[in-house]
Structure to design on (114 residues):
């Protein structure tokens, strides 16, 4: 007749200290595994965050010159329009200054675009 498999307590000869030591060792092992898993999660999260920051930086650096060109063109048109108004009312000195500002803005836009 086959005997039933021994339980853990019978294998450990009903030694409560041995059972507690085994449980403590298992708990320590699980804590180490948990700590290692958390470290892996932090590392992956940090890598993903840095990757995303790099993508955002590349997108901004690709878009910023185009926005700057449009802003400088708008500033040039605005200065030119104000200079025309000033010229039409007879303030030629201020108009000449604003024509210079408009030309400088358009020139900077052309330089940035290249």
């Amino acid at each position: 007749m086959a005997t039933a498999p021994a339980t853990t307590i019978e294998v450990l000869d009903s030694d409560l200290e041995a059972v507690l030591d085994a449980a403590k060792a298992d708990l320590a092992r699980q804590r180490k595994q948990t700590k290692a898993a958390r470290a892996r999660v932090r590392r992956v999260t940090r890598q993903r965050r840095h990757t995303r920051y790099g993508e955002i930086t590349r997108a901004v650096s690709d878009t910023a010159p185009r926005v700057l060109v449009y802003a400088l063109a708008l500033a040039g048109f605005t200065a030119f329009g104000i200079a025309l108004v000033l010229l039409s009312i007879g303030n030629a000195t201020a108009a000449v200054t604003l024509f210079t500002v408009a030309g400088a803005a358009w020139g900077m836009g052309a330089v940035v675009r290249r």
